[in-house]
Design brief:
Blueprint: H1 8-13, H2 21-54, E1 59-65, H3 71-82, H4 84-91, H5 95-120, H6 150-158, H7 161-173, E2 178-181, E3 199-202, E4 207-209, H8 214-230, H9 234-253, H10 255-263, H11 265-273, H12 289-292, H13 301-306, E5 310-312, E6 315-320, E7 330-335, E8 355-361, H14 377-390, E9 399-404, H15 406-414, H16 433-451, E10 459-462, H17 468-475, H18 482-494
Parallel strand pairs: 1-7, 1-8, 4-5, 8-9, 9-10
Antiparallel strand pairs: 2-3, 6-7
Helix pairs in contact: 3-4, 3-17, 5-7, 14-16
């Protein structure tokens, strides 16, 4: 045999030289068994591919919008409305989060009170009662000096233990996350921008890193208890329970003082002069202190919807819907970070067959961005909506708009806050809720019409997503039945099933 006839594969599979009949029989038997196993694996892979084709693709929904526009509350409403069993199983886990929210409400007020009492003790006659930068328009000649009394000093002392309670509660959820920061980001939607990840720093609000939001935080607590049980460590289990009991008892012991500081007229005036409205912020529970600050407190559905545990990054939540047109089907909801420096992370989710639910908080018409105090929050929301409408990757995507926090908008208007002072284009229109929502809704529609690459319909809803009953109607049956229907139709179209 010459070199041209040489075949390495033939040599590799050729029987050994001088093979005996017994060895040959054993070899052929082993080869037959190997072939059988290979064929079984091939058949199993074929069946798995067929089953995957038959399996329903998950319905995907991306929740977009500014920070604190109501995205997470909408997500919780989805779980409450369509995955009730999972909701009930998780509800009591929110107890620690609600305690943290309540304690943080108090400590935020104490921080301001400490600052103002220190300033009031100075001999300057010009002090009128707020060092907050948002109070620059206060006319010092028209307001009397705030008079803090001994009771305010005592309240600070008696509420001091809540500082440690806040630290203990935060520690059990994990280390404080570092938030992406970039002073160079000046656009509402820096999608795909290389400059968007310049640095990281600790967030002013306690936050955790997670890929599935509150589920990671709850899993961490469950894992601590499971590890103690697995090790048979009765002392560790007892210590965990004692810590829980101590937190509840300290908060219950401070209940009357919490009510006193929140209802105190001087403290209310101090907050008003500083334009600090803690009651409009996410995770506000001071009006519920009698019900929550008790040792046997159990969260209600409304409490869970209102609770706030800030997470950084894009969160993926998976629910199996228990009823509706998609009963038995998996839905994947993505909750994105809403600050300007977090929006670059949205880009990878734009091209994955996902419907988009955009949130805009209408009540923020007179507020500034936390990350850039020069920018009006509602104006930023308009710019962000324009960027979403203008994005070519989303030109065939179903867009649903939630104009949220209408309850807070109405409360502001009833207090006499004028829209035209912050939104000059509003002009001399009536300063009431119906006129305001109609004006803002039309503005969003005009942006879509002007900047969308193709003509498309979209759905818009006026919402207050912390109202579980009205939101359940929006997400489900009744006159808003088309909400689930529209997302499902878009999902089927993308899956080439329509």
């Amino acid at each position: 045999m010459n070199a041209a006839d040489f075949d390495p594969l033939t040599l590799a599979i050729a029987p050994p030289p001088n093979e005996t009949p017994t060895a040959r029989a054993d070899r052929e038997l082993a080869e037959a068994e190997a072939l059988r196993i290979s064929n079984e694996i091939d058949e199993q892979l074929r069946k798995e591919r067929e089953n995957e084709k038959k399996k329903k693709r998950p319905v995907k929904l991306l929740l977009l919008g500014q920070s604190e526009s109501g995205k997470t509350a909408t997500l919780k409403n989805f779980q409450l409305t369509y995955a009730k069993r999972e909701w009930i199983a998780e509800r009591n886990n929110w107890r620690a989060v609600i305690f943290l929210n309540l304690v943080r409400n108090v400590n935020n007020i104490l921080d301001i009170l400490n600052r103002e009492m220190a300033a009031a003790s100075l001999p300057s006659p010009d002090y009128i009662g707020s060092s907050d930068e948002s109070s620059e328009d206060i006319n010092s000649s028209s307001r009397p000096r705030l008079k803090f009394k001994e009771k305010h000093r005592l309240l600070k002392l008696r509420l001091g233990p809540l500082r440690r309670i806040q630290t203990d509660l935060e520690r059990r959820f994990g280390a404080t996350a570092l938030e992406p920061q970039s002073t160079s980001i000046t656009t509402a939607a820096p999608f795909g921008s290389e400059e968007s990840q310049s640095s990281r720093q600790s967030s002013k609000e306690f936050s955790i890193n997670s890929s599935n939001g509150w589920k990671s935080a709850f899993e961490k607590i469950r894992a601590m208890r499971a590890a103690a049980r697995a090790d048979g460590d009765a002392h560790a289990l007892r210590r965990l329970q004692e810590t829980d009991d101590e937190i509840a008892e300290v908060i219950a012991g401070c209940r009357d003082d919490v009510k006193a500081i929140w209802e105190d007229p001087t403290v209310r005036e101090m907050l008003s002069r500083g334009k600090t409205r803690v009651e409009d912020s996410a995770g506000f529970f001071l009006n519920d202190v009698d019900r929550i600050a008790v040792s046997n407190y159990e969260p209600t559905d409304d409490d869970v919807i209102r609770a706030r545990l800030r997470t950084l990054g894009v969160q993926e939540y998976r629910f199996i819907f228990e009823h509706g047109r998609t009963a038995g089907q998996e839905w994947r909801l993505y909750d994105v970070g809403g600050t300007r420096s977090s929006r670059a992370a949205w880009w990878p989710y734009f091209d994955d067959g996902t419907s988009h639910l955009f949130h805009s908080a209408l009540s923020c018409f007179d507020e500034k961005l936390a990350e850039d105090r020069r920018v009006n929050r509602l104006e930023d929301s308009f710019l962000l909506w324009r960027s979403v409408c203008d994005c070519k990757l989303l030109s065939r995507t179903q867009l649903i708009l939630f104009l949220n926090k209408c309850d807070l908008l109405q409360a502001k208007l009833q207090r006499g806050v004028r829209i035209r002072d912050s939104v000059p284009s509003f002009g001399d229109r009536r300063n009431d809720i119906s006129t305001a929502t109609r004006y803002f809704q039309q503005h969003f529609k005009e942006i879509l019409k002007q900047y969308s690459p193709v003509q498309r319909s979209f759905f818009v809803h006026l919402t207050s997503v912390i109202d579980t009953r009205s939101t359940a109607v929006t997400l489900g049956a009744g006159r808003f039945y088309h909400f689930e229907e529209s997302i499902l139709r878009d999902h089927l179209r993308r899956a080439d099933l329509m």
